[in-house]
Write a structure and sequence with these properties.
Two copies of one chain form a homodimer. The first copy, chain A, has 92 residues and is an alpha+beta fold. Chain A has one domain: Winged helix-like DNA-binding domain superfamily/Winged helix DNA-binding domain (Arc Repressor Mutant, subunit A, Orthogonal Bundle), CATH 1.10.10.10. Helices cover 55% and strands 15% of the residues of chain A. A three-stranded antiparallel sheet of chain A has the order 1-3-2. The radius of gyration of chain A is 16 Å and the shape is elongated. In chain A, 18% of the residues are buried. The mean pLDDT of chain A is 93. Chain A binds chain B through residues 1-2, 4-6, 10, 47-49, 64-65, 67-68, 70-71, 73-75, 77-79, 81-82, 85, and chain B through 1-2, 4-5, 10, 47-49, 64-65, 67-68, 70-71, 73-75, 77-79, 81-82, 85. The first copy, chain A, binds a DNA duplex (30 and 30 nucleotides) through helix 3.
DNA sequence: GCATGGTTGCGCAACAATGCACTATAGTGA
DNA sequence: TCACTATAGTGCATTGTTGCGCAACCATGC
């Protein structure tokens, strides 16, 4: 769960849910040093959420756990419910 | 997700999945200062994962999002897969 | 050797967790 | 009404953890 607790890593997972990517493809999408991005990816690899397959000089990342996407659904549900609750509170 | 990134909060959610609890019931289960526990619970309330219903002097906590339990299932799957992978690595 | 793709060591700043002391509120009973 | 207790939340200081960039490094292929 800790590995999914950062917006950056969530965005990486989201991106990988649309297909495999190499670091070099991810780098333009993230406005940060490549070392930082590398560490975020490493965090996801460490816990087994993504895997890597080398193709020559590049390493392609693959989302290893499709059920993560259900987690996103649940999260969105929580966010929507909370937004509704806040709106109700604001109305009084 | 951040709210679920702490072992303590995961344990709280797990406990609430078995029924509503008040802080005073949770306190004996957690070897920490009550203020710390209170803050963990507050974090879960803030994001709408748990709700509170007051009964006199006590506040009963309720798990607001059953889909969180699916998240646990997914997580366990990842953990099992990772354990298997590690075992395979160890065998060589 | 050299370019490309990716990782690691290090130090700093920001953030999160914790315990202690204190406060706030609801209920209880003289 | 006024203490008194039980339950829960806050302010603050300390400590531990995380995210980050920089620079150096490792690995692959030409």
């Amino acid at each position: 769960m800790k590995a999914l607790s950062s917006p950056v890593r969530l965005k990486i997972v989201d991106e990988l849910s649309r297909g495999d990517r190499c670091m070099c493809e991810l780098q333009p999408m993230f406005p940060m040093n490549k070392s930082t991005l590398s560490r975020h990816v490493a965090a996801l690899k460490n816990v087994g959420i993504v895997s890597e397959r080398r193709e020559g000089v590049r390493g392609y990342l693959k989302l290893q756990t499709p059920c993560i996407l259900n987690v996103f659904d649940c999260t969105m549900g929580v966010i929507r419910a909370e937004a509704k609750r806040q709106a109700k509170l604001a109305r009084g």
